[in-house]
Known about the structure:
Blueprint: H1 27-45, H2 49-72, H3 78-94, H4 102-119
Amino acid sequence: MSMTPVNNTYGVPEPFIWNDSFAVFYENLDNEHKQLFQAVFALANENSEGSIKNLLDVTVNHFNDEEGMMVKNNYASYKDHKKMHDNFVAVLKSLKTSDVNEKILNWAKDWLVEHIKTTDFKYKGLLG
Length: 128
Ligand SMILES: [Fe+2]
Ligand SMILES: [Fe+2]
């Protein structure tokens, strides 16, 4: 697993639940971001193959939708943005229940918070 270091300066909600400071103002994407928070929260509560699969599924579904909107709108930073998505998915794909611990959960929380607020926020208003 290659977990790239995350410099999250925003802090992490505790409990780990989406709030409107994460809003990108596209209803489908905000709903999917809520699902991502819920899936990380669920994995922290119950370390199981089902929890990992659910997190992978909602993540892949969300990234597909977000990337589709970027492509449709000729979003300039699409390629770099997609690379970050792909790296996160690669970690989730290799994740086993025996890997799940505080460190990886905190990494996933930091990644998600930092990604939305730094990288996703850049497309606000640009995806039609
Ligand atoms: Fe993204
Ligand atoms: Fe996103």
